[in-house]
Amino acid sequence: MKKYDVAIVGAGPAGSVCAYRLARSGARVILLDRAVFPRDKPCGGGLTGRAIRELPFDVDEVIEARVDEFEMRLQYGSSYCRKAQRPLVAMTQRSRLDALLVTRAATAGAEFRDGTKVNAIERRENGDFVVACEGERLGASLVIGADGANGKSATHLGLSGDRTLGVALEGNVPNDEIEPERYEARAVIELATVPGGYGWVFPKATHLNLGVGGWEATGPDLRTHLERLCHMHGTTAASLENVRGHRLPLRRNGAPLARGRSALIGDAAGLIDPVSGDGMFECFVSARLCCDAVQRVLSGQSADLIPYSSELEARLSRLAAASWAAKRAFDRFPRTAFALTRPRFVWSVIEQLIHGEIDHPGASRGPGRIALKSLKTIARAARPTPSAGA
Ligand SMILES: Cc1cc2nc3c(=O)[nH]c(=O)nc-3n(C[C@H](O)[C@H](O)[C@H](O)COP(=O)(O)OP(=O)(O)OC[C@H]3O[C@@H](n4cnc5c(N)ncnc54)[C@H](O)[C@@H]3O)c2cc1C
Questions:
Q1: pTM (2 d.p.)
Q2: What is the pLDDT of residues 264-280, one digit of tens each?
Q3: Are 177 and 303 part of one and the same domain?
Q4: Which of 176, 196, 232, 314 is least buried, going by the fewest C-beta atoms within 10 A?
Q5: 148 C-alpha to center of ligand 1: Å?
Q6: Within this chain, do residues 193 and 299 fall inside the same structural domain, yes or no?
Q7: What is the side-by-side order of every strand in the sheet holding 163-174?
């Protein structure tokens, strides 16, 4: 049986970046994915400034558009625009981004095997693992579950925890079917149009990406929400290509992240931001912190990956708590939440958050901080909806 230092299950943004970092540090890494690459993944493909900051290399070659302006609209009614001095989000397509990330991991020295489904992970008495793939068994000292929202590695590793699910549906409309100039360098966010979520229109090189997302219970209505979004943007659902849905796993506080020499990263750990539905920043942060913890085990400084849990919590938990509060506030008191986030001084805080210049709203100074704190207060007044988490 071939033996590795680390086996990573899943080669999305979390798994590939973790494999890249570990291979660069000299670890013997195998990166396994059931899909044959290049593969697509339902996603808006928006890389926030803070996500790009966390990447260990640049991904300019797969960036199709840059957004420096947000148009925020409430329930398809009143709206405002906020333009930043510099791009806030870089737009890509996941088939292109993920293909680049696995290539970088492989070039750095990770062994990449696509078309290889992991069926089981066994934990041995000495703490090592046997990863059972179709037709082969592989040995590993450490295992990282990076198999996304529908992955089974959390269950195999005894790390399934409490989580809330969201769901989102998206598709693409070619530029010649719509007025592309209206969306140039601009993202449109349609707030409070879907319970527990929103609609979006993102520009790409040759098309627009339109999507809607909300609580898992909204799943059966998402097609209707998407049709409405299309209609409000001068197109029809029939013009959409490649319409796909996927789950958004939202971890609850305290859900396990590591056990022995195994850990979860990215969507497998349920790290999606509750209010924005973004997850790639969280993929890259968890990949980096997990890689640091793995290196400490491999160098004998640490016996297991347990410290990774508290390190990740320390980096993300205050941001996640603020996001849960904003989500509840927008869900239950959308007009008040919209009014509170509208002033330019609030946007300067949101810009700093998007760029990762501050870790959470509480780290900001001035009136923007007070407005965002008020979201927490009104969120407390909102009795949790049955499907709401945290
Ligand atoms: C509609 C939608 C829009 C979104 N828009 C954005 C956005 O604009 N910006 C943003 O930052 N985030 C966005 N997100 C969230 C983002 O897509 C996820 O956070 C991100 O894909 C998580 O990456 P990951 O590497 O954890 O998992 P994934 O990207 O899901 O990758 C997991 C991989 O594991 C593989 N796998 C699964 N099971 C096995 C197995 N048994 N054996 C081997 N391999 C396996 C899969 O084939 C897959 O390649 C969106 C999500 C949705 C659903």
A1: 0.96
A2: 999 999 999 999 999 99
A3: no
A4: 176
A5: 5
A6: no
A7: 79-83, 69-74, 186-194, 197-203, 207-215, 163-174, 241-251
